């Protein structure tokens, strides 16, 4: 068990607190945010302090940290705080749900959050600072590089490589042996069948209003 400090005071921090508290050996003791963004002295009933004061108030020799930030700036905000926490001497905790099927013999890197109902097949490698939301499959021999965010119900086939700081949207599908270049944005429901380009944006066609009303067509 380790005393855990969470960076953040938003939805990601609230989720991290819940999972680390109820499904890990860690004990969340406090939250920190940048001084300019702190509103109040508590969050979820625990102390909320300035990040600038964290190393003195919560020494890295005694506390681990988890950076609970989403995908702002294509994961750049989370990457920056991850680097700052490491520079301050903190060890970064990772969470893997007890309801995840993690079948790879290689554990994830630092500051990862892997939610329930994911299947991580054998020979997968997951880098540092990766968020993998619930219900996805990461196929055998695939690699998820650092600072990625994978939304729920994504299907990643075997031998796929997902480059740093990529975002994969809900219900996206990536065919086997495809390389997702750095900072690729794959939109919700998109089907990726060939390599992407760096900083490329790949969207499926959004839903549109059909000419007929729902009582004039059959589902399916």
Protein model, in words:
With 220 residues, the protein is of the alpha/beta class. The chain has 2 domains: 3-87, Rossmann fold; 94-202, UDP N-Acetylglucosamine Acyltransferase, domain 1 (3 Solenoid), CATH 2.160.10. The protein contains 3 helices and 22 strands. It has helices at residues 11-22, 54-57, 76-87; strands spanning 3-7, 27-33, 42-43, 46-50, 64-67, 95-96, 101-102, 113-114, 119-120, 125-126, 131-132, 137-138, 143-144, 149-150, 155-156, 161-162, 167-168, 173-174, 179-180, 185-186, 191-192, 201-202. The strands form 4 sheets. A 7-stranded parallel beta sheet has the order 6-8-11-14-17-20-22, covered by helices on one side. The chain has a 6-stranded parallel beta sheet with strand order 7-9-12-15-18-21, with no helix packed on it. The chain starts with a strand and ends in an 18-residue tail after the last strand. The model has no long low-confidence stretch (mean pLDDT 95).
The value of Rg in angstroms is: 19 Å
**What's the name of the CATH homologous superfamily of the largest domain?**
Hexapeptide repeat proteins
Q: Report the span from N to C terminus.
A: 50 Å
- Domain count, please report it: 2
Share of residues in strands:
25-35%
H-E order: EHEEEHEHEEEEEEEEEEEEEEEEE
- How many strands? 22
Inertia-based shape: globular
Helix proportion range: 10-25%
């Amino acid at each position: 068990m380790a005393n855990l400090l969470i960076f953040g005071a938003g939805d990601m921090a609230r989720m991290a607190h819940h999972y680390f508290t109820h499904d890990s050996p860690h004990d969340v003791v406090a939250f920190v945010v940048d001084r300019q963004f702190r509103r109040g002295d508590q969050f979820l009933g625990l102390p909320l302090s300035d990040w600038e004061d964290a190393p003195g108030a919560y020494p890295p020799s005694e506390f681990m940290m988890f950076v609970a930030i989403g995908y702002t700036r294509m994961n750049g905000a989370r990457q920056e705080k991850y680097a700052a926490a490491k520079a301050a001497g903190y060890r970064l905790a990772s969470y893997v749900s007890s309801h995840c099927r993690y079948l790879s013999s290689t554990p994830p890197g630092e500051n990862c959050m892997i939610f329930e109902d994911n299947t991580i097949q054998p020979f997968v490698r997951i880098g540092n600072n990766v968020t993998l939301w619930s219900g996805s499959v990461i196929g055998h021999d695939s690699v998820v590089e650092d600072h990625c965010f994978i939304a729920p119900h994504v299907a990643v086939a075997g031998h796929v490589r997902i480059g740093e700081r990529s975002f994969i949207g809900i219900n996206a599908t990536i065919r086997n042996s495809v390389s997702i270049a750095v900072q690729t944005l794959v939109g919700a429901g998109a089907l990726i069948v060939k390599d992407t380009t760096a900083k490329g944006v790949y969207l499926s066609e959004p839903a549109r209003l059909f000419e007929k009303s729902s009582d004039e067509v059959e589902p399916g």
